[in-house]
């Protein structure tokens, strides 16, 4: 990983997440965004009331303004001074008391370069030169714009939470031979719960019933039924489809897989992309410059204009201040990234931060592990060959040593032989030799089981014909003598070929790395049309291959299990974990988690990143073009305060509407 991305790889804590979610995005604030309480009166993304009832003073101010304008332009009647001032002042205070309060709070801390102070100066200035209706209009429409912005941010965050927070609030538990209904938080590990057909599973556990089918859409994005057998893992959020199922709880409510996924996605909204950080830095410089330019617009013409009119140029400076607030940028850009994270979540992909949405747009090389990523990782024994040993004894010894490994190949051998065959076998001194296999003492015999390199390492001869076998081979030696081999075959995933084809259509290079032997790797690569494939790799060999790609200045994503390939994940610009639903370590280490086992989701993740970036930059260009044009018109005396506030609020609302549409897009 390049240095500038190192910090992005760190996992946010839930504590930081909660602080960040309450953080106020002050559009023009030159300091770091600070945490405000509700009394601060303006909180992008906070949980304040976004309904009309919570904005009655603002609506009252709008009503007064509408009545006064109707009287002035419809009936040609304007109340005489000071009655007109008093009426407009009431409307102004109703609409803008929050803004004035925040401006005052910041001013006493010598913080003058913020949106509140900017709007307060502009509107008070309008009153000072007698433009009462325009001063009220600016404050009313600015406050309405803020209301809509808050509502949009709140809705985006709620929709992300609602997307994943499908945990039921009550659960049926078996206690003392009878059932009772309790809140999931009140359950302890080891208790047995019931899930009726159509009910959501409340906590993680193992299936106690013989068989059951579940809809896993909340966790994987796929509604295809998943049939589980006794002892299989079941996760909170799954929907029981057919029979009443009994599940033994293995994790508390707060520690369930779904709770952790939800927490991770909420953390993600607080991790800013490079674009967001740039806009924040831009606002810190932009606002003081705008203030300086507004002062210049007001006073510099005095030295160059023959008939200088202070009120005219002061009015132009006020227009300049109103249009200059970069709210459209500072609000709509995070909103765009919220939308991207939500869209990805809906498709069973979890981004650990908006920064990784940006990273995915730059990927030009995808490096993939073979087993479990492109292949099913469900191995079946194909052939057993022994030499100088009885086949049943050979299988018993091999299954005994392989039972001490969690590798898919080892599990296939152990499953083929069965637990009963090895229950009375003595197993000791088990040692895993990375990239080679296992060594152990079985019933007093020294046993080696692994690939051909393991036997070579121990100077044990074996038939050369073994190296020509295409399928994966487990070679076994007993007491330093070759004893035979077992061939294992894996199956390529249904959508793997389509995933590689789509990656190539995006101009992305594909590379496969595997510890499996080269003949197996070549066979898979040939079927899938992968650009480069390397087999017989130890963990350090994978690191070397990835480093070689990095040395070519390639931006790469590594796709694997995120645990065994941790060094490679650390090198990659984006670490993507496949099937993260079943692995706690995967969720912790990866930057992007694909919740099911579909390689095609790699392409979806890249598309979500590109779509998000496209919409974010649409908003940046829209806001900047409109603001530059109206700034020029305002300085030239063409645009008035009405046009300035409508342009400011209008472009902000357009940018927000453009940002929130991301979550509705179908990929």
Provide structural commentary:
With 667 residues, the protein is α+β, with helices and mostly antiparallel strands. The protein has 3 domains: 3-161 and 266-341 and 612-664, no CATH class; 171-255, Calcium-transporting ATPase, cytoplasmic transduction domain A; 380-489, Calcium-transporting ATPase, cytoplasmic domain N. It is built from 22 helices and 22 strands. The strands form 4 sheets. A 7-stranded mixed beta sheet has the order 10-22-21-20-11-18-19, with helices on both faces. A 6-stranded antiparallel beta sheet has the order 2-1-3-9-4-7, with no helix packed on it. Strand 14 and strand 15 form a beta hairpin. Helix 3 (56-74) runs antiparallel to helix 4 (83-107) and helix 4 packs antiparallel against helix 5 (115-128). The radius of gyration is 32 Å and the shape is elongated.
What is the fold's blueprint, element by element?
Layout: H1 3-6, H2 14-21, H3 56-74, H4 83-107, H5 115-128, H6 132-164, E1 171-175, E2 178-182, E3 192-195, E4 205-207, E5 211-215, H7 217-220, E6 225-229, E7 233-234, E8 239-240, E9 245-249, H8 257-268, H9 274-299, H10 310-324, H11 327-346, E10 349-351, H12 354-362, E11 365-369, E12 380-386, H13 391-402, H14 408-417, E13 427-433, E14 437-442, E15 445-450, H15 452-457, E16 472-478, E17 481-489, H16 496-505, E18 509-513, H17 518-528, E19 532-534, H18 539-551, E20 556-560, H19 566-571, E21 574-578, H20 584-589, E22 592-594, H21 600-635, H22 641-660
Parallel strand pairs: 11-18, 11-20, 18-19, 20-21, 21-22
Antiparallel strand pairs: 1-2, 1-3, 3-9, 4-7, 4-9, 5-6, 5-8, 10-22, 12-17, 13-14, 14-15, 15-16, 16-17
Helix pairs in contact: 2-8, 3-4, 3-6, 4-5, 4-6, 5-6, 5-10, 6-8, 6-11, 6-22, 9-10, 9-11, 10-21, 10-22, 11-21, 11-22, 12-21, 13-14, 16-21, 21-22
